[in-house]
Amino acid sequence: MKFDVKKLVVSGMLTAVAVALSTFSIPIGASRCFPVQHMVNVMAGVFLGPVYSVAIAFCTSLIRNLLGTGSLLAFPGSMVGALLCGLAYRCTGKLTAACAAEIIGTGFLGAALCYPVAAVLMGKEVALFFYVVPFLMSTLCGTAIAAVLICVLCRSGAFGYLKRQIAAKK
């Protein structure tokens, strides 16, 4: 597999944004949502595709774990959503499909995949769907932020320009 330098640079920047802003949270009821990873998943899925979006989610989770600001649950929670988001956008070219895929991938599938991670690797006794509600709240917030941001980029004409610049080869 050949990697594109422009895509690697954008991936590094999105990973840095996700790590740097990973402490930003939004209080919702008794819970706190951390939407930045989900926003980055959608942006990466739309601009870079599934391979790069999964790599960004993995690198962000790894760095956050090494820094002590994340948990092992970040891996399945973010990577499944990133994969489905990138695949949905690649197949349909529609932002709504990418957003729906991020929500389903992270909010339901990623949350369910956290069960074996929590039970086996972390020694926590939790129900199978224990993480669905908190993951759904975070991914809904992050996906909404990304959708608004991409819509603003589309209306300004910057979306097409950025897509062309990232895809352009020298």
Topology:
Elements (H helix, E strand, L loop, with lengths): L4 H16 L5 E3 L2 E3 L2 H12 L2 H18 L6 H19 L2 H27 L10 H25 L1 H10 L3
Antiparallel strand pairs: 1-2
Helix pairs in contact: 1-2, 1-3, 2-3, 2-4, 2-5, 2-6, 3-4, 4-5, 5-6
| N-to-C series of helices and strands | HEEHHHHHH
Shape: globular
Largest sheet: 2 strands, antiparallel
Low-confidence sequence ranges = none
Number of helices: 7
Proportion of β residues?
Answer: under 5%
Structure description:
With 170 residues, the chain is mainly alpha-helical. Helices cover 75% and strands 4% of the residues. It has helices at 5-20, 36-47, 50-67, 74-92, 95-121, 132-156, 158-167; strands at 26-28, 31-33. A two-stranded antiparallel ribbon has the order 1-2. Strand 1 and strand 2 (31-33) form a beta hairpin. The mean pLDDT is 90.
Any descriptors?
single chain, mainly alpha, two-stranded antiparallel sheet, 2 strands, 4% strand, globular
